[in-house]
Amino acid sequence: MGSMFRSEEVALVQLFLPTAAAYTCVSQLGELGLVEFRDLNASVSAFQRRFVVDVRRCEELEKTFSELALGPRTPGKLPRGGASRAWSERKSPRHLEETDRLAQELRDVRGNQQALRAQWHQLQLHSAVLGQGHSPPSVATHTDGPSERTPLLQAPGGPHQDLRVNFVAGAVEPHKAAALERLLWRACRGFLIASFRETEQQLEDPVTGEPATWMTFLISYWGGQIGQKIRKITDCFHCHVFPFAEEEAARHAALQQLQQQSQELVLGETERFLSQVLGRVQRLLPPWQVQIRKMKAVYLALNQCSVSSTHRCLIAEAWCATRDLPTLQQALQDSSSEAGVSAVVHCIPCRDMPPTLIRTNRFTASFQGIVDAYGVGRYQEVNPAPYTIITFPFLFAVMFGDVGHGLLMFLFALAMVLAENQPAVKSAQNEIWRTFFGGRYLLLLMGLFSVYTGFIYNECFSRATAIFPSGWSVAAMANQSGWSDAFLAQHQLLALDPNVTGVFLGPYPFGIDPVWSLAVNHLSFLNSFKMKMSIILGVTHMTFGVVLGVFNHVHFGQWHRLLLETLPELVFLLGLFGYLVFLVVYKWLSFTAASAATAPSILILPGPREPRGALTPAPPSQEVVQSTLVVLALATVPVLLLGTPLFLRRRHQRRQSSRRRQPLDEDKAGLLGQPNVSVASQNCDEEKAGCLGDQEEEEFVLSEVFMHQAIHTIEFCLGCISNTASYLRLWALSLAHAQLSEVLWAMVMRVGLGLGGEMGVEAVVLVPVFAAFAVMTVAILLVMEGLSAFLHALRLHWVEFQNKFYSGSGYKLSPFTFAVEDE
What we know:
GO terms for molecular function: ATPase binding; proton-transporting ATPase activity, rotational mechanism. It is found in: Membrane. Among the domains are: about 365-470 and about 505-595 and about 620-650 and about 700-805, no CATH class; about 475-505, no CATH class. The chain has 26 helices and eleven strands. It has helices spanning about 20-30, 50-70, 90-130, 150-155, 175-185, 225-235, 250-265, 265-300, 325-335, 365-375, 385-400, 405-420, 425, 430-440, 440-455, 475-480, 485-490, 520-555, 560-590, 620-670, 675-690, 690-700, 700-725, 730-755, 760-800, 820; strands at about 10-20, 35-40, 165-170, 190-200, 205, 210, 215-220, 240, 305, 315-320, 345.
C-alpha cells in the first residue's frame, strides 16, 4: 500500500562516518532530513562527550549574536537566511574572528554614542537650568514685622553674621520634585529658598530615547552645614546638580558656552557611523544566526555517535525510510568524497518497534493531524486518515446541513486556499487565524459537504426551496375530497391523503419535498427520517472500522485473530444492529402509501400469544431469524473472550517444547558431523522477520493476555450498544441546528420583513435587521454550532470508529533536519 494508507517501511541503519568528513556528512543529512539519530551515548554525561567544546563555542557565538541583535532600534523585518548552509569546520575560526571583531566594533561605537548622548543630555539640562529664569533672592537687612519667612531673610546666627548667599541648581525628575522640596524644607528647618520650574521643552532620554519632561530647581541657602545637607539630599534623589553664578552676565556667558559645546559634539557623525555598523549587522546577522544554529545541531548530533576502536571513524545508528536509503547512500558518498574514504551504510536488525512515518502534503496534513491527536499509529498499522478525508466532513455535514451556512463556510475556506501562497497570510501570528488557516482544506470539504446535505434536507437559512415541482398536489385533494367552505371553516388543518388519485405524484427528485416545510408534522417526519439515517450511518461506520482491522491482522501475520476476533465481532455487530438496519431498509422498500397503516413497528413487536392481525405482516420465520441472530451474537462473546488467550497459550507451549528439542538436535548433528541446516535457516528467517514476535513470546503471561482480552471483549460488546446510541447525536445536532436557524429567522428576519410602511422606510429598517441577522448567523450558527458539530464528529471518529482497529500507541519519526532553523 501507499504511505498514506499505511506508514512507510523504516529500517535501522548503521553509519560509519570518517572522522575527517563526519561533520560534512551530518550537515548534509540535516539539509535532507532523512534520518533520525539514536543516542549511542545515553549513559555518558553531556559534559563528557566528544564535541562538547564545539557546542560551547556555538553557544558563545549565539550569545554574541543575541548581543548584536539588540543593536537595531528601528523596527523592520530582517532578511531571511533560510538558504544558508552550516559553516564548515575550516571556515568556522574565520567566522568566529569576524564575529568577535564586528561585535567589539559595535560595542565601541555604541559606547561612544551612549557617552555622547549622556554628555549632550547634561548640556541640555544645564542650559535649561540657566535659561529657566530663576532669579536669586535679594537679602534684606531688616524686617517690618514678624513673618513665617523671617528666618529666610536673616542668617541663622543673627543679623551681624556673614550674609553671603550660596546656590544649588540642578534638575530632577518630575515625580520626585514634591518629595525633594518637602524633605529640603524639613531637613533645613526653613533656612533656604527653593524654586522649582518645569522645563518648557521635552528632552530625549539618553537610555530609552523617549522624550521626557524635567523639573529644574534653584536653592538659596546660608552656611556650609546647610549646604552639605542639601547636597546629600540631592544626591539621594539622583538629581543633576550644575554650577550657578549669582551674576546674570556670568550666567549668560555660561549659557553661550554650553550652546557652543553642544554644537561641537560629534553626535550626528557617531550616529551615522553606528547606523552603518548596524546596517552591516542587519545584513550579516540573519544568515549567521541560521548557520550557527545548524552548526550547533550538527555537533549535538555528532555527540550521539560512538567512536570506533581505531578512532578513525564515528559510528551512528539512525532510523531511515527504506525508500530513502539510496538517497542517503549517495549523499554520504558525495559528502565524504574529499576525505578519500567513503562513508558506509548498512541495515541492522533491531528489537525495538520502528517509528511511524507518514508523509503528508498541505491537503492531507489537517486530516492526519486529527488522527495523530488521538494517538500516533503503530508501525505499519492501517492509517485512518485517508478515510477520514471523506467520513469526517460528511458526518459534520449531517449535523450542519444547510445550503446557506455551508456555502459561507466553503467560501471562507476557498478564500484562504486561494491566498495560501501570499507572504502576509502565511506569516500572520494570530493564533486563531493560524488555526483556521492550518485547517483550510478541512473547512473547504466541511462546507462543501454541508451544501450537499443542505440540499438533501432542503434547507437554506432554514427556508425550503422549490428547485423541482412538488410531488404533492393540493388541488387534486381539494377536487376529489369535496372540501366545502363550511368544512374549511371548521378544520384549520387539512391532511393530504396519498391514496387519493392524483394527490401523490411521486417522490421528490432530490432531497425532501418542500411541501413538508408547510406541514405541522414537519418536525415529526424529520425526526423519524434523521433518527433512522443516524443508525444506518453509525452501523455502517462501525462495520467499516471492524473490516479495516482485517488488513492489520493480515499484514502482521496474525491469522488467528481473523477467526477468533474479527469474525465474532462482525457476527455480534451485524447480528444485532445490522439486522436492525436491514429491517429499516426493508420497511422502507416493502410498504407503500396504501399499506402504510399496516406497517409494523420495528422496535415494538407483538408477543407469541398476541394476535398478528393487520399490524404484523412480517413472515412467520422472522421470529426464528431474530432468535437465531441473538443466540449467535451471545455465542460469540465466549469465543471473543477465550479464543485468543487459549490460542496464544497453546502456541507458546508448542514453541517452548520446540526450543527444548533444538539443543538435542544440534548435539546429534555435531556427533554425526553434519550441520543443522534447518535450524540455521530457521534462525536466519527469524532475524530477517524481526524479533518483536520473539520478545512477545518471551514475555508471554497468560493472566495479562487474558485480562487484556477481557477488557477488549467488554469494551466491544458494550461499545456496540453505546456507540450505536452515540451516533444518534447526528440526529440531535441536525435537529438543533435546524431549529436554531428557524428561530433566528422567525425572530429577526421575519419581524423585519413584516414591518409595513413605504418602500424607502422599509428599506432603511431592513438594513440594521439584516446586519443583526448576518452577525448572529456567523456568531451563533457558523462559529458556535460549527464548533459543536466539529467536536461531535471528532468524538465519533476517535471513540466509535478508530477504536475498532486503531491502537495509536506508536511514535513519530522525527528526522534530523534543518527545516526548523530555516524557519
